[in-house]
Amino acid sequence: MPNPYIPYLTKVKSIVSENKVNDIKTIELEFKKEKEYKNFEYIPGQFAEISLIGKGECPIGIASSPTEEGTIKFTIKKMGTVTSAFHNCEIGDTVGIRGPCGNGWPVEEMKGKNIVVIGGGFAFSTLRSLVIYLLDEKHRKDYGDITVIYGNRDPGEVLYRDVLDEWKKRDDIKVVLTIDREAEGWTEEVGFVAPIVKKVAPSSDNAIAVICGPPIMIKTTIAVMEELNWGPEQILNSLEMRMKCGIGKCGRCNIGNKFVCVDGPVFSLAELKKMPNEY
Amino acid sequence: MDQKILKKNQIGKLYKELSGEYSFFAPINKKGNIVFEKIENAEDIILDYLNSKIPPKSVLFPQEEVLFEYTLDDKDIEITDRQDLEQKYLIFGIRPCDAYSFELFANFFSFHGDWKDEIYLKKKENTTLIGIGCNTPRTTCFCTSVGGNPFNKENMDIFLSDLGDSYLVEGITDKGKALIKKLSWLSDATKNDVKKAEELAKKAEELITTKIDVDKVVENLSTCFEDPVWDEISEACIGCGSCAYLCPTCTCFDVIDETDHYNNRGRRIRIWDTCQSCLYTMETSGHNPRDTKIQRCRNRIMHKFSYYPTNYDLLGCVGCGRCIYVCPANNDLRVILDKIKKIEKKEGEKVVA
Question: How far apart are CA A32 and CA A43, in angstroms?
């Protein structure tokens, strides 16, 4: 076995600013060695430890879908030392990557089911990966109806406009966008995610819901889902915790006896109810 | 005769014979503290110590350790892996509790399927432990409550019993037995020597008077997550983290890049970290899942006595007592466990882990 702390090396292929205030960027990486890219087999919902050598490393959810072959994408909000360094990156810069880490969305178990994807704000990255995966021609037939409900503070914060527009043109996916308060030129839903979910009222029949977003959105949305008769094993969440290694060794991401990095980050609501409320 | 005798004045000879092949680590007195260090002079070795201040986990898991080195050349980056993992280690004079902690480390670092900590595991594989029984355990020792024993030989390659002027030498593993065979100058032990060692072992066990009902503690921990006992347990804690840093079973670490910008090279290192620090779980958003002292103290105890048994069917404590005598606030793990043991079970309490 090789040293698990040594990253594969990639080069920055493209950088896209995702929002008006320019504190969220999507960085596309190309592996320097084709063989290492082949080794990096991931599913939606997994994350990777990405690093700028000399600046540091941090865990980021993978925003691309494995069906988008050739490169891998990460959407990074400028927050601390490492994420700020990523925002100062130029095309061609070297980025280290270790992974894929974590369990990811259970795309195999989700087969044959209707899928409801609910996201809020910047947490939409691994949901982007999931929906692109589900809509891929190789996979679309394996899943039932697909509904996406995606909320943001204001229109300037909506990520991935290009793929959202593509999805809206299709008739095999329902896309509902909402913003917190009315804004000029906005023609879609207005309101927090939870009341919009209540309005859309997705059926729990033979369905799985995946929810990603800020804690308050998750909490209020789950309350609505329970009203709509969704069972705790049908609702999946992806958790965040501070991490260093991403591979179950550095210790800090435990919630009870589970490590978010290897046992998660995806947990069903049924699993979360058995865990201490320390996340 | 399988058992041999090593005279105390032969330790220099042993060192001379083995220090070429092995990195030879043993306890020394460093400014009044007993620590395990690489021996340069056999006369520095001290074996009449009780417990080392810094646990010998530091030999294979140093407080600061290189994960890899790198050179930065504008856009080109080169990474160099560790080149020193084939080095053979010999740890001489390790105590049974600390030797057991090496097994816990190896177990934890090899867990989680695909991801094994090859740096630690490779070093562990290349390590030979020559340990020594504890004739006079410290007052803070409680290894017998957590499945250990002052003369537990299980996790050693070679086991020594201090007979006064000499040590009884027993090969435990094949590796240990083979090494003893190479030391052909060791004299045979007599039946009397073996009997004396057995008596010392019996006496040592009797000297440990602390008896903790750990099974009951483990059972109670599965239902006492929200119990007010944690306020009481954490009240005196000042969050210094000494208990965790000096715990032979604490494995947690932080990772940082250290760059020498003048020479465009650096190293990614791991350094000991502790769940007793507020920053340990602080997320970049400012959210902190364990931002109170109660939560952090609870995590340390739960980790060792609930999460560890649940995940690996092992206790995460070896009973060395270091956390007891290093605590500046006099928090005593034995008292903490006793408080948990006495919690009366309430019906319908949420079971965690």
Answer: 21
Number of domains in chain B: 2
Question: Inter-chain contact A252–B252, Cβ cutoff 8 Å?
Answer: yes
Local structure of B278: helix, strand or coil: helix
Fold classified for A114-238: Rossmann fold (3.40.50)
Distance between CA B85 and CA A106 in Å, rounded? 38
Closest chain A residue to the Cα of B278, Cα to Cα: A252
- Could you tell me which chain A residue has the CA closest to the CA of B77? A94
Whether the model pTM is above 0.90: yes
Tens digit of pLDDT per residue, chain A (279 long)?
789 999 999 999 999 999 989 999 999 999 999 999 999 999 999 999 999 999 999 999 999 999 999 999 999 999 999 999 999 999 999 999 999 999 999 999 999 999 999 999 988 999 999 999 999 999 999 999 999 999 999 999 999 999 999 999 999 999 999 999 999 999 999 999 999 999 999 999 999 999 998 888 999 999 999 999 999 999 999 998 999 999 999 999 999 999 999 999 999 999 999 999 888
Contact B169, B3 (CB under 8 A): yes
Tokens of A161: 């406009």
Q: Are A21 and A155 in contact (CB under 8 A)?
A: no
Residue ranges of the domains in chain A? 8-100, 114-238
| Class of domain A8-100 (CATH, top level) | mainly beta
Domain enclosing residue B248, as ranges: 214-254+273-341
